[in-house]
Amino acid sequence: MTDYQSILNEIYRQVMLVKDRGTVASYIPELQKVNANHFGFHLKLKSGESYGVGDYDVPFSVQSISKVLSLALAASFKNNNILRRLDVEPSGHPFNQLALLEVEHGIPRNPFINSGAIVIADILVSKLDNPKADFLNYVRDITGDASIDYDPIVAQSEKTTGHRNMAAAHLLKTFGNLNNDVDEVLDFYFHQCALSMTCAQVSNAFFMFANRGKCLFKKSRLTEQKVKRINAIMLTCGFYDEAGEFAFEVGLPGKSGVGGGIVALLPDHFVVSVWSPGLNKRGNSKLGMQALEQFTTKTQLSIF
C-alpha cells in the first residue's frame, strides 16, 4: 500500500529548500500582498482518504481554477449551447490575449482563457436567478462546506484593474457573443475568480471530475461524457500556453490560477491540490508545478 503521507512530506521538505519561489502576481494589487513563502499540498483519494502537508488548510484566491467549476455548472444545464459560442482548442497564447479573439470573430479558443470564461459567465448570468449567490451555493453544495465564500476585497481589486477583461467583454459584445449587460457579466466573473478556498476544499470540489461526475456525496452532478470532455479540456488548455509542458512533466488533467493554486486529478483514483503563490513566467505556480511533477514521478501515477 502506498504511503502517500510520507510522499507528501518528502516533497514538502524538498520544495521548501528551493530558493527561487517565483514571483507573486502583481497585476491584481490585492494578490501582491500574499506571502510568497506559503506552500500547501493536499491529496484526496477516490476511496475517501485525505492527506495534507504545509498550508493545505489556509484559504487563498483560486482565480482561474474557478473556471472549471463555472464550466461544469453551465454544462449541467440543458440547451446550454456552449460549443456554439466557444471552441475547445489550446490557444498557445497568454490567458488575457485579445488579438486571437478579434481574428476568430469573437469565438474564444477555449473556456479557460479569460474571454472564454467570460462567455461561460454570460451563460450563467442568463441561466441563474441570482448568479453570484447561486454559483457560490453550487460550490458549497458539491463540497459540503458552507464556509467557502468570495473575497470581496479581491473582487473589488479585480474590478478596479480589470481593463483587459473589460476590453474582452466589449469585444465579445461587438461580435454578438455576449447576451447580457457587460457590467453584470463582469461583476459575476470577478466574484467567481475571487473565490477563497483551501487546498482541501479545492480537492473536494474537483472530486466529481475524478469520480465520473459524482460529487463527494455520491450525487451525480455531470454525465460521464461531460466529465470526460471537461477533463480533456483541462489537459489541453488548463495551463494556458504551458499546457503542453504540464502534460509532459506531470501527466494529469489540471487547472492553475494566478493566486498560485493548481489542482490536478487522475480519473478513478485521486484529486491533488497545491498552493504556492510565486508564479513562473507563464503565470503558473513555480513550486506547484515542481511538486506535482515529483508526485507523479514518485507514485508512478498519471494518465500516461
TrEMBL record:
UniProt EC number: 3.5.1.2
Organism of derivation: Hyunsoonleella aquatilis
Group of enzyme by EC: hydrolase
Name of this protein: Glutaminase
Gene symbol of the encoding locus: glsA
Alphabetically ordered keywords of this record: Acetylation, Hydrolase
Catalytic activity: L-glutamine + H2O = L-glutamate + NH4(+)
Leader sequence residues: none
Pfam families, per database record: Glutaminase
An annotated GO BP: L-glutamine catabolic process
Family: Belongs to the glutaminase family.
Quaternary organization: Homotetramer.
Source organism superkingdom: Bacteria
